[in-house]
Amino acid sequence: LSLSIYFVFLIIMRMVLLEEANLSSWRRFFEFASFNCEGKAYMSPFDFIQSLTSKASPEIITRKTLNYLEALQLTKETPSVTSSSCTFFRDANHHGLISYFDYLFLLSLLSEPESRFRIAFDLFDQNKDGKLEMDEFYRMASGILPKKLRENHYEKTSTKHEMSEYTKDDCFIFTTLSNHFFGSDHKSTLSYDDFHRFIRNFQLEVWEFQFMLFSTSKKDLTVLEFAKMIYSHISLPLHHQEQCFKHLDAKSHSNLLNRISFEEVCKFFTLLNNLNNFSYALNLCNLSNDPLTHAEFQRAVNASCGFKFQPDVVSSIFNIFSADNNGKLSVNEFISMLQNWRQSFIFKELAQPQTLLDNYKQCVRSKIMQSSFK
After folding, report:
1. Quick one: which of 291, 319, 287 has its CA closest to 303?
2. Model pTM?
3. Could you tell me which of 168, 163, 144, 160 has the C-alpha nearest to residue 152?
4. What is the number of alpha carbons within 13 Å of residue 213 lying toward its C-beta?
5. How high is the pLDDT of residue 254?
6. Rounded Cα distance, 38 and 99, in Å
7. Hey, how many other C-beta atoms are within 10 angstroms of the C-beta on 258?
8. Measured between alpha carbons, how far is 297 from 271 in angstroms, rounded to an integer?
9. What is the rounded CA–CA span in Å between residue 197 and residue 186?
10. What GO CC annotations are associated with the protein (predicted)?
11. Beta bridge partners of 40
12. How far is CA 19 from the centre of its chain?
C-alpha cells in the first residue's frame, strides 16, 4: 500500500512540476496554441505534436477565435477511445481542441513507464469501480493541478470573472481529449484497458514523429542520425557534438556500425521512461562502477525494461555516449545525459543558440511533419 501511495505521489508531483518548474510548459503551450475560445487558448492536435517534436518556436501565430458552437463542431467527430490508434493526433490534424490541462496531462503521461499506467488510472478512479466517468476524472484532476495552472490558461488580459469561470467543473469539457475518453455526450466511461491502450499509442505516435524527423530513409536511422536525434535534446558544447559526429561518421563509412530500426528506437525511448529502474538495477547488481561493459548494460536493461537491445545497437549507444569517443560507457555520465535528454525533450529547455543552419533544418523538419499530417 505504501508503495502505491509513493507512486501516486510521484505522478501528482510530475503534473505539478510540469507547470511549476519555471513556466516553460506554459510558454510552450501559448507559443503553439492556434485557437482561442471564450478567453482561453487551445492547441489543435497538430499544434500539440509540433510542440513536442519541434526544437524551435513556430512563426508568430494569429489565433483563430471560435465561438461555442464552432468549438463543438470542431471536436464532435472525435473517435471513441475504443478505436484509439497510434495515428490519433495525426488523423485529427487541425480538427480538434487541446486545453492547457490536456497538454500538461499528456506531457505527464509521455514519460511514464508502462508499469505505472495502472497507478495513474487508479489515481483518478475514486470509487474503485474500474471505470472513470468524466466528472470523476476532472474533479480529481482539478484538485491535483494548482490554481496557478488554471489561471495561466488565460491570456494576461483576462478578467477576474473569466478566471473564476475557468475554475468551474465545466472548464475542461468540449476538448478532443474529453470527447475521446468520454464520448461527445460525455456519458461514456473509460476503462483501464482503453486508458492503457491510449497511453501506449500516444507514446508510440510521438516516438514515431521523432524518428521520422531524423530518418532520411523513413525506414531506419543511421547511427549518425540516431546520435543527432539524441544530441538535439542534450545541452552539450558544440565541439563535443562535432567530435562525436565525426567519430561516428568515420565508423559508418568503415561499415563498423549498422542501421537502427524503429523497433530499437522504441526500446531506447522505453529505457528513458524506465531510467529510475535502470539506475536501480545497476546499483543492485553492483554495476555502477566505471566503465560499464556491453554485457552489464544488457543485463541492467533486461532487468529494468524486460528486453535487450540488438548487439550493434548497444555498440552504437556506447559510441554515442562515450565521453572520450573510446567506446567505453561511464555509468554516471550516461545516466546524467539521459536525464538531461528526458528533461529537455519534455520542457524544451535548450540553452544552445540557434544558428541560421539550425533554423533552416528546423524549417525543413517542420515541412516534413506537416506533410505527415496530410
Report:
1. 287
2. 0.80
3. 163
4. 26
5. 61
6. 12
7. 16
8. 11
9. 20
10. mitochondrial intermembrane space; uniplex complex
11. 37, 154
12. 15
Task: Give me the residues of the chain with pLDDT under 70, please.
Answer: 1-23, 60, 142-173, 236-237, 252-257, 287-290, 323-327, 346-374
DSSP H helix total and E strand total for the chain: 20, 7
Per the CB < 8 A criterion, the answer to whether 97 and 37 are in contact is yes
Q: Report the DSSP pairing between strands 190-191 and 131-132.
A: antiparallel
First to last CA, the chain: 47
Picking from 109, 294, 318, 108, the residue whose alpha carbon sits closest to that of residue 199 is: 109
DSSP bridge pairs for 292: 329
**Do 163 and 151 touch, CB atoms closer than 8 A?**
yes
The H or E element containing residue 209 is helix 192-214
Q: How many residues does the chain have?
A: 374
Q: Is 23 left (phi over 0), alpha (psi -120 to 50) or beta?
A: left
Over the Cα atoms of the chain, what is R_g? 21
* Residue 238: all three cell numbers together: 558544440
Q: Are 301 and 307 in contact (CB under 8 A)?
A: yes
Cell of 67: 465561438
The grid cell for 126 is 475514486
The SS3 call for residue 329 is strand
| pLDDT for position 244 | 78
